[in-house]
Amino acid sequence: MGEDEGSITLLCLTASSGVPLFCRSRGTPSKHQLPFSVIGSLNGVHMFGANLDVLLAATCTANTRVAWRVFHNSITLIVLSSEEGASDFTLGRLLDNAFSTMVLILGLEELVNVRNIERLKKDLRACYKLIDSFLGPLEKTGDLTQCVECVPVPHGPVLQECLEAFAGAAESRFGCLLAGGRLALATDPWWQLAPQELLLLTWLVGVLPPHTTRDYPVYLPHGSPTVPHRLLTCQLLPGLEVCLLCGPSPGLPTVESELVPRFWKPLLEPLQACVRPPPPGAVLPPGVLAFLLVNGEQRSSLSSVQPPGSRGEAPLQEPFQAGFPHRAQHCYVVSATHKAYAIHAPQHQLFLLLAPNVPTFALRPLATRALQRLTEDAAC
Fold this sequence. Notes:
- The chain is α+β, with helices and mostly antiparallel strands.
- Helix content is 34%, strand content 28%.
- The protein has twelve helices and 16 strands.
- Helix 2 (88-106) runs antiparallel to helix 5 and helix 7 packs antiparallel against helix 10 (252-264).
- The protein is flat.
- The two termini are 36 Å apart.
- Residues 313-318 have low confidence and may be disordered.
C-alpha cells in the first residue's frame, strides 16, 4: 500500500493505568509501529488534561489527526490517521464502532471491571477481525449512513412468511436472511434493534470464519450489554444465511437437522433466486451511474454502482453556497465528469450519480421517477 494512501492506527488502553491492551494498524509497516513512548505520551497528554478538567477530544498536526475517547471510565481508545479524508466525525464514529464491537463480543462487564489484564488482552483478539474492517478503505455504505445495507430479493412475501415461522419454531422473535452479506429480510423485532446493533451483527457474520452453522455468543451493546444472546447462523445456500438471536434453547443440532429442512427445503427455488437477484439499479432510467437510497424510519439503505467507464473526481463547476435559509428537498450538482442529484423526502433520502450527458432539465423528473421505482420494488 502506498504511503500516499495514508495510514490509520487504533490504540486501546486501560483508562486508569494506561496499560496498552492492543494496537491495530493499516498502512503502517510493522517496523514503523508506534513505540511505547509515543503511546504513553498520547495517553499521558489526555490524562493530564482530564486532571485539569479539560476534555481533549481531538487534535491535528500537519499530516495526522488524533482523536481520544474514554468509555465508562475504564477503556481509552485513541485513533491516529494520516488519511486525506479523515475528520473528527469519522474518527469519532470509528471509536464508537470499535468499543461497541468489544461490547458485542465480550460484554460490558468484562470491559468495565477489569480483573485480569492479560486475560482481557487475550479475549480481545476475538474482536480484531471486525475492528480491522473499520480501519480499511470505506467499502460499507452502512458505516457512512448508519443504516444497514439491504438487497431486494425475489419472492419476498413468501420468504418473509417462512422466516417468521422459522424464528417462532426456534423460540425467537429475532431473525434475518442475509444475501451476499447484506440484509434481505428480517422480522419486525430484528428491525427494532438499535441501528448500530443491526450494522455490527451483519458485519460480524461477514468476518466470522466460514461455516455451514455457527453458535456464537453476542451481547447487544444497547439492548443487552451484560446478558449474552446466542447468534445462530445456518447457511441455506452459498452466499445465503439465515440468522437468529436466541436464548438457551433450542440447540444448534436441532435447528440444523430439524428446523432448517422443515421450513427452508420446500423453498429451494425462491432461495436460489436470492443468491443472484437482479441488480437493484435494473429498474432505474438510463444514465444513472450509481445510487444510494436511505430509509430514515427503518434505518436501512440500498445502493448500487454501475459505471459505464472510469470514475474520477473533478472540481465542481461552481461551488456550493455555505448555508441556506430553508431546508432543501431537491438539489443537484454539475461537474465535468458527472452530475449528481439528491431528494430529501419524509421517509427516504435518494442520492443519484448520473452521466454528464443527462440533460440538466431532466434531472428532477428522472430522480423523482427513480425514487418511485426503488421504493415500490425494494424492501427499503
